Amino acid sequence: MASLQLAGTGNPAVARRSLPSFHGLRLSPFPFRLPSSIGACGVALERRGFRGHVVKAATVVAPKYISVKPLGDRVLVKINTSEEVTVGGILLPTTAQSKPQAGEVVAVGDGRTIGDDKVQIGIQTGSQVVYSKYAGTELEFNGSNHVILKEDDIVGILEADDVKDLKPLNDRVLIKVAEAEEKTAGGLLLTEASKEKPSIGTVIAVGPGPLDEEGNRKPSTTITPGSTVLYSKYAGNEFKSADGSLYIALRASDVMAVLS
């Protein structure tokens, strides 16, 4: 993604408290307050909540360009629009609309070379896919938002409308998260805010495995559908299905144990 950074000269006229959430951002020499969603020159910004906030904006492709051809193992995905209405029909304000992590593949690269072999991209144009939350570079092209990312950043293929039917790719695993405990060991009823986020779930589907040095798939032999597993607490991408159940898609290496 294109990054927008405000260069500063240390002008004391600018109050640092006007930018409380942008860790490490150098200040503009102009004495004005910067709204959280609008940057210099009116560029809409997005704050990313990981390891210091990074100010980013989509790269705008000029209208004179009529196509974008990904290179190597990269894929161009047209991002689905944000949900503007809840399942119950409630209109969501812009600030409450979650950023989509899904879209349609509109172009693919020629693949990559592993050893002496050329490995083609295994995703077809027209496929509906789910991708990693912070992966790739966003583009505004032909009036629509796109993201260009590596094939490995695609979590899985959506063959139906519900995330529970996600088909994981590569070394990804789809897990249905166990429900949080409603009560403490002493019998006290827990509120939603105090419920411990579980790191245990049931494996729903397993990807075909990563590619080895010869370009062959190495399927997992220890993680199988139906297994109850313990996984790393902060790994993967979480999704909510139509019935409200929570699912997580993560790499097989983030599964720490099989429970029985």
Average predicted confidence as pLDDT: 74
Provide the spatial order of strands within the biggest beta sheet. Answer: 4-10-11-5-6-9-12-13
Number of strands: 19
Sketch the major β-sheet: 8 strands, mixed
Termini distance? Answer: 44 Å
- The oligomeric status of these chains comes to single chain
Question: What's the architecture of the domain at 169-259, going by CATH?
Answer: Roll
CATH level-four homologous superfamily name of the domain at 169-259: GroES chaperonin
CATH class of the domain at 169-259: Mainly Beta
> Rounded to an integer, what's the Rg over CA atoms?
22 Å
Helix content: under 10%
Extract low-pLDDT stretches.
Answer: 1-55
If you had to describe this structure to a student in words, what would you say it looks like?
The chain has 260 residues and is mainly beta. Among the domains are: 66-85 and 99-158, Roll (10 Kd Chaperonin, Protein Cpn10, Chain O), CATH 2.30.33; 169-259, GroES chaperonin (10 Kd Chaperonin, Protein Cpn10, Chain O, Roll). Helix content is 0%, strand content 32%. The chain has no helices and 19 strands. It has strands at residues 2-3, 46-47, 55-57, 59-60, 74-79, 102-108, 112-114, 117-119, 128-131, 137-141, 144-150, 154-158, 166-168, 172-177, 200-206, 228-231, 237-240, 246-251, 255-259. The chain has an eight-stranded mixed β-sheet with strand order 4-10-11-5-6-9-12-13, with no helix packed on it. The protein has a six-stranded antiparallel β-sheet with strand order 17-18-14-15-16-19, with no helix packed on it. The N and C termini lie far apart (44 Å). The model is unreliable at 1-55 (pLDDT under 50). Pfam families: Cpn10. Belongs to the GroES chaperonin family. InterPro entries: Chaperonin_GroES, Chaperonin_GroES_sf, Chaprnonin_Cpn10_CS, Cpn20, GroES-like_sf. This is 20 kDa chaperonin, chloroplastic. GO terms for molecular function: ATP binding; metal ion binding; protein folding chaperone; protein-folding chaperone binding; transition metal ion binding; unfolded protein binding.
